[in-house]
Design a protein that fits this description.
single chain; Rossmann fold; 2 domains; 7-stranded mixed β-sheet; 5-stranded mixed β-sheet; 18% strand; globular; Transketolase-like_Pyr-bd; EC 1.2.4.4
Length: 337
Amino acid sequence: MPRRTMIEAIRDAMDVSMARDERVIVYGEDVGFFGGVFRCTQGLQAKYGKSRCFDAPISEAGIVGSAIGMAAYGLKPCVEVQFADYVYPAYDQIVSEAARLRYRSNGDFTCPIVVRMPTGGGIFGGQTHSQSPEALFTHVSGLKVVVPSNPHDAKGLLISAIEDPDPVIFLEPKRLYNGPFDGHHDRPVTPWSKHELGEVADGHYTVPLGKAVIRRLGADVTVLAYGTMVYVAEAAAEEAGIDAEIIDLRTLLPLDLETIVASVKKTGRCVVVHEATLTSGFGAELSALVQENCFYHLEAPVARVAGWDTPYPHAQEWDYFPGPARVGRALVETMEA
């Protein structure tokens, strides 16, 4: 199969979807002629025309609000918010309109929109280009929330999201855009050196929403991760010499609780890893669910490794990230508890 970066896989997903269904449209800030700030939409306007791939004003509320209206009348908008940090002006549209449209209309209307957003750090973008706001969306009933960790899943999950009848928040880890991340490094040293580019099939295929995957089988401790942190967890387990079972959640909402519970009941221990701020992060929900469903199987408290409870520190970006050293300490402490 062809090897592609995540950017190429995401572009291919939109290309395939637009070719299969003329109702699919793509727009956002600079996504048309320019091809997006990360070039995820490069070439789509030339191929499908300005009526199906076009630039929008710098108004996130306008981008998402217009997409909701288009979706209600039969289109399938896949819109880009240039950075996840920019989504806040559109948050009311997402929460108050998109997430509730099916219920408020008693099923007369659905809202098949996808809101794509680059998320997380790794490009020294500072406080306004590096946030990980996934927990703000997993709290909202009526949304689906997706975070891919590799090119193959990115394409299949995005096609599934575009074809889904309800709104999907599609968060794309920037550190994985140009190649799989080498989680062994706490600093940006040859960050793409370890893993091959992802094998991504041509044409149409889907990866189901709401289904996690076990990336590394193990017997001693379960690690729950998503996005970039999947690679960090793998590196931490290898360096610490711990037989960890690593689950890539892929979809945060709906969550594949069945896979999580089966793994934790087998290992008896659990460590949760995410890049976002610790307090009220999605790891808190994961920890609560594991405790509720696996309490009598746990040999140690559930541990969380996450970003600091501070505004995003530009100058200390690579200390802020959970790296293999911090995750490895949590694994060791959990095994010793």
